[in-house]
Amino acid sequence: MSEVSFHELTNAAHYDKAGIGWYTAFVNAEISEMIAGPSPYGNGTTANSPIIALGEGWTYHVGHFMADMKYGANSAIFFEQGFEYRNGNIRQGGIVVANTGLNAHLNLLEDFNTDRTNDPFQWIPQGLFYDLIDNRNDQAFGRVNLNDAVSGYNNQQFFNALDDDIRRLQEYRVRLLNENGNNQAAGVNIIFDFYVR
Amino acid sequence: MYGNNKFLLIVMLVICMTSYGFKCNKSVGCAEVVYNFEMGIKAYPDKDSILIGDTIWIEINEPVIFKDLTGTGNVDYSNAANLGAAISFAQLISVDSTNDKVASKFKYLLMSGSSVERQDTIKYWEYKFSEQNGFYRFKLALIPREKGVYKMFIGNANNVYRNNNKCTKANFIINFINTNQHYYFNKVSFPGIVLSGKTGVYLFKVN
User: Fold this and answer.
1) Mind telling me how many Å the CA of B83 is from chain A's nearest CA?
2) Nearest to A179 by CA among A158, A151, A155
3) What are phi and psi of B156, to 5 degrees?
4) pLDDT digits (tens, 9 = 90+) for B13-31
5) Rounded to an integer, what distance in angstroms lies between the CA atom of residue A28 and that of residue B69?
6) Bond prior to B63 in cis (omega within 30° of 0)
7) Nearest CA among B116, B128, B203 for reference residue B160
8) Which of A37, A160, B119, B139 is deepest in the core (most CB within 10 A)?
């Protein structure tokens, strides 16, 4: 329940930051896709998809990131993309498929994979922001083929770049880099390429 | 203006709670995954180094009756509509240096199964497994065109459904079995990260 609360409060904070024009577009996009399906976000290929990917990717990130701050090693099990994210490992059908040492919420963010095309919402980049923060290269392990060589970004920097004219992930990438001296730009571009389909 | 803002905020909160409910409540719209299965994939011949133009065979031969990992016994999961996997590669160049847009450095000859069209073939190739005589089958010849050390990733198949029953979905773990996965090549780019256990990665060198 805490993760849901953080998620929804992050929507409200985004509204406060980006303003009513941005938020009206976001609301209209989600209403349209809820009707068109697959509910609630659509199939990721319509004109509504970019703003949903940006808005929801950010809120899922903060929801899990803050839930991890609150619960850490006592986090509950979370399910996403067919996997059970637990504290220390990832399971499928009760079988441990990876020992990561991460707690459940960060496990979920770090293991999020746009390659899992059977997940209808794999285009919402839940793991994007955490990959810009952490110093763990996904590609070194056995699950996600992403060369994540970027670390050290933080949530304040992410939030600062959520401006009213930013409605696509690639626009967001440019603003984030511009506001942060093109910090690790080559690596940032690789990570965005992985998430923006 | 304030009233308009407040109205939008309320609308958005309702949408968010509703949409979040949809995503969490896996029973809505036949989204529930009922079974979890494990499927083995083989790579051969058992050599860690091959030459340009040699062939690495990737093969699946699995009976359609699977043991459910969650303990409900054996399940006949024939007639799957979307059982398959995405394959991608990373070229391990040197410490902390890799390139994952190397799918074109291989020639692909599909002997069993079918291709799934994707736009990002610079990185991914995706296949569906075929069903023949009570088995799921997949056989792919990989023929490298350039030298290098490569790490191949086989994706899991999740949210698989059957043509005759879309509401009993299954997740498949796809791991290499009876295959030397040559994990030691991981140190080329990631010294200190020791791979172990069953995974869907296979490493090899092309001379």
Assistant:
1) 9
2) A158
3) -80, 160
4) 555 555 554 443 333 456 6
5) 42
6) no
7) B128
8) B139
| pLDDT score of B72 more than 90 | no
Of the options 2.30.30, 2.60.40, 1.20.1250, 2.40.128, the CATH number for the domain spanning B29-206: 2.60.40
In sequence order, the β-bridge partners of residue B160 are B170
Residue of A nearest to B200 (CA): A142
Distance from CA of B11 to the nearest CA of A (A): 8
pTM of this structure: 0.87
Say what the ipTM of the complex is.
Answer: 0.86
Q: Is residue A181 part of a domain?
A: yes
Does residue A17 register a pLDDT over 80?
A: yes
Instruction: Provide the mean pLDDT of chain A.
Output: 95
- Write phi, then psi, for B147 (nearest 5 degrees): -70, 155
Q: Do A141 and B98 touch (CB under 8 A)?
A: no
Question: Of the candidates A72, B87, A82, which has an alpha carbon nearest to the alpha carbon of residue A90?
Answer: A82
